[in-house]
Amino acid sequence: MERRAFLKLAGATVAGVAATACSAAPPAQAPSSAPGTSLPPSTGVTPPSGPPDWAALRNKISLVLPGDSGYDNAKRVFNPAFDGLKPAAIAKCVKPEDVQEAVSAAARRVPIAARSGGHSYAGYSVPDGGLMIDLGGMSSVDVQGEQVVIGAGAKLKDVYATLGAAGRCLPAGSCPSVGIAGLTLGGGIGVLARKYGLTCDHLVSARVVTADGKLRTASADSEPDLFWALRGGGGGNFGIVTSFTFRTDPAPSAISVFSLRFPAGSANDVLAEWQRWLPEAPPELWANVVLSGGSPVGARIAGCYVGDSASLGKLLDGFPGATRSVKQLDYLGAMKYFSGSESRQSFVASSRILEEPADPAKLTSVLKGRRGMDLLVDGLGGAVADVAPDATAFWHRKAIGSVQIYSQADMRNRSAATGSVAEVVTGLGLGGGYVNYIDPALPDWMTAYYGGNATRLKQVAKTYDPDKVFGFAQAVTPD
């Protein structure tokens, strides 16, 4: 769930480098080799020397270089904190063949990263001194009956508008400018997840440019290990997706949205009740609880119900002391309701996973006096938990929710905010993490994000990117 929308409502690559401890790990699974599958070999060849021939590449695709008009705008991403990063080149791709040309020209010479929505929390979609592959020109949304084919550069606002007009539904995030690519590849937690599952659970196939420059189709029947990894294995890994095919559901005729406000000093009671209430609620109900730092710590709840407002009202009666706001909307109206601002925002964030009910006092105590910081606990369960943890790369299937630690920050206080977030991450006493809230400072991040799926993900990386063509600071690599 995207953080800014609920801060507003409650009153407060693979393509698209984004933008996850559990039960005992499953046995490691070796990559399969489906008949007819062409897998890139582990080359073991000495890397080429010297930078890419940008002039030659510019003759084939649209390329923006430092000093060109529009360079600063072309490299810009959502968080202004990363404005100082300077790619050596930006490839503005409009078709899969452009991506292939870019990868082939730069592979093993400079870092390569794809940008779809540009919401990577760590700025990984802006490779300093490397090649940014801008997928913004590949943004088509084509509804084909019960399926939709979406270009990797599409933003959620356009996905929802097209699906809503066609009477179809795809569970996804809320921030309108987030790209479909990073969201899907990290799993895709959203406001309809308990009813319909994660975004990645609806993926039918993906077109992917791998490290050898080949364009492959990953599905249950073609490149099945790659397909498994793309569903929750994180943006920036394994290849660059150029398009996704999803199955969709009929759009619900009514989605009732709500927010609950509570008196000051009630944060512990609110969190305790939320942890009891949501897991027992029907999957049609989704909710989060937002804890705001200060003295005292504030608490509010927001969410939605796939159904009419009268039925929702009965489910909210467990919070008799709350000031309640409820609206009944259609599918597209509900998605617009949850949309946050598209304006750029400077922040520092991290995450943990709420595997089981926690001591409310422990979670609230770390926020005392920390104004400008929020914990956003987004509910899981329902359809998310109906899928086995090792069925896709998204590991945290049995958790109650994800916990995002989000702090406002600008260039003047960014260092202090980063330190404060790190203190809270440690103080919460929780494990795990959500890779779409990627944090360079998260302890043991590989296990935190991928749990028992980490070993298999490394095996997939060894098969498809043995030379770390798409490597970055928190990339899944063979070693």
Q: In a few lines, what is going on in this structure?
A:
Residues 25-52 are annotated as: Disordered. This protein is an alpha+beta fold. The protein has helices spanning 3-9, 54-58, 71-74, 96-106, 156-166, 180-185, 193-196, 224-230, 267-280, 309-315, 331-337, 360-365, 414-427, 445-450, 454-464, and strands spanning 62-64, 89-92, 112-115, 131-134, 141-144, 147-151, 168-169, 203-209, 215-219, 240-247, 249-250, 255-261, 285-292, 298-306, 323-329, 347-354, 373-379, 401-408.
Instruction: Output the CATH class name of the domain at 253-451.
Output: Alpha Beta
Distance from N terminus to C terminus (CA atoms, Å) equals 31 Å
Question: Roughly what fraction of the amino acids lie in strands?
Answer: 15-25%
Number of helices: 15
Q: Roughly how much helix do the residues carry, as a percent range?
A: 25-40%
Second CATH tier, the architecture of the domain at 253-451: 3-Layer(aba) Sandwich
Query: What number is the mean pLDDT?
Result: 91
Low-confidence stretches: 18-42
Q: Largest sheet, if any?
A: 7 strands, antiparallel
Report the count of strand segments: 18
Structural class: alpha+beta
Q: Overall 3D geometry? A: globular
For the largest sheet, list the strands in their spatial order. Answer: 15-12-14-13-17-18-16
Radius of gyration: 22 Å
How is the CATH topology of the domain at 253-451 named? Vanillyl-alcohol Oxidase, Chain A, domain 3
Oligomer: single chain
